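Q&A log
Question type: sequence-to-structure
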Amino acid sequence: MSTTSWVWAIVIIIVIAGAGWWFVSQSAPAPVTTNNTETGNLTGTVAPGTETAPKTVTVLYGSDGFSPSSVTIKAGDTVTFVNNGGGDMWVASAAHPAHSGYDGTDRATHCAAGYTGAVPFDQCAAGTNYSFMFQKAGTWAYHNHSNAGHFGKVIVE
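Response status: OK
Response body:
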């Protein structure tokens, strides 16, 4: 076999290998089953590489209220409210004073000692920091129960 034949044979092998690699890389990835941590049930499929780890978003509270006053997150993400010296901070779901916007129970019910129902979006007492993991999609208004003129919203996609 001549040198020219060898060169053409190598070129053809490289072209075939490259075409094979391109074809395989263009195939859709197989879906991955995910687990719903709230219920423990299998809930659906997500393409590999598109899963995102839950994140935490920080909202600061000061004398002018919450900043930012609106945040957008994914279900399963956590919002941490940090009091930066704005007086008492008691994060509570809207509307004031019932605090029933997120879980449907009122403040007297879900803040009572021994309550074991749905997890409320309510700090239930003034404090320095408060974190809440949002599991439900929707727009969730909140306020400072200690100063109801300070309010914001969390948009959960």
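Response note: The chain has a mean pLDDT of 80.
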